[in-house]
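Obj.: predict assembly geometry.
Materials: sequence records (below).
Method: joint structure prediction, all chains together.
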Amino acid sequence: MQLTLSRKEQIEQTATALFKSKGFSATSMRDLATALGIEAASIYSHIKSKEEILQRVCFRMANEFFEALAKAESAPSSATEKLKNAIVAHVLVLTSNTAASAVFLHEWRHLSEPFLADYLLLRDQYEARFRSIIKEGIANGEFTVPDEKFAVLTIFSGLNWIHTWYNPAGKMTPVQIAENLSAMLLNGLKNNNN
Amino acid sequence: MQLTLSRKEQIEQTATALFKSKGFSATSMRDLATALGIEAASIYSHIKSKEEILQRVCFRMANEFFEALAKAESAPSSATEKLKNAIVAHVLVLTSNTAASAVFLHEWRHLSEPFLADYLLLRDQYEARFRSIIKEGIANGEFTVPDEKFAVLTIFSGLNWIHTWYNPAGKMTPVQIAENLSAMLLNGLKNNNN
DNA sequence: TATACAACCTAACGTTCGTTAGCAAATTAA
DNA sequence: TTAATTTGCTAACGAACGTTAGGTTGTATA
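Observations (raw structure tokens):
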């Protein structure tokens, strides 16, 4: 556990919080400087450009999601369990840093090429891993879904909204959230006991 | 059915498309003017400010959602049917204009006061209507959910992602999407027939 | 003690931004 | 035919933007 952040990391963290709350475009370098208590020009002793911050946040988060998914997939089990593990892994990354997650999920479109293309490729690869779990579940009868693309979209939409309301100081722990979400996505709202 | 749009409506429509694809802040009045084939200054013969466009889109969509929900709620039925009707109504509004929906859902934070406060109040009122349907379903045993706030959040996240992938020229009709979504949210992925 | 480096400063650059003023042409209504 | 309205133009405003240049200070290293 690193106790002290380098100045560059401090800048990135502060910028991420601003990007989440105001958006990338609406956050000026002068806003960021004010939040850091320095002048806007001083930031350029540490970073090359405003977009560099966005790039670093987006690709660092992409890495975290892939690593978490790899661990979740490693234990061979049923599609149901695989999906549940993948959902839990995804939620844990999301809740571990809601600001960076929000930027990763919503501000990526401000990346310039070739970063934008790289980002979209990674995202598609990530979603494909979920699709194949669902396909497996459909094939062996665990799941009943009209369309696996549709199912994946619904799962991700449920997951990727968490950062807007998750509060680390709230009642639910990340694991509880993940368990509830996967239960709801797998079983639905309906009471199936009667 | 109105066949010709007033110039003001054309501007609003073109702006909405740009706001969806680039975001409000990243869309300049000169971008909008270029898309319309006129000069930026000419736009001000029709509107007062850039934000006025955003305000009109946001509150017009809010109205549409409320009206659709009112109709869906009018027929007294079970909580399950009420919820399904409300979901269908919501999806139909979303798919009827994905650009305006995207702006409504994602660009509202660029509203200035007092419009921002008004918007947030409306949104909370709308969500409260869904919460009360869920509460009713929990109370009479139709639903089994750990937390109704959590359930509503998950429902909305599933619904409000549609605009990112829905294609009017695609295979699924809005009604089919709505039916599939409500089925998935109510019953989950799991095959409950065995 | 001398050197290097990290961190920040002031001043300013060229650009883009939303918007206004004032005017002209075309279309519609009286 | 005249008047009003709609729709657009050019030119320009002040402000904000991302960024660069060049210099100063304090701290850690040799």
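Conclusions so far: Chain A has one domain: 51-188.
To do: check interface contacts against the pulldown list.
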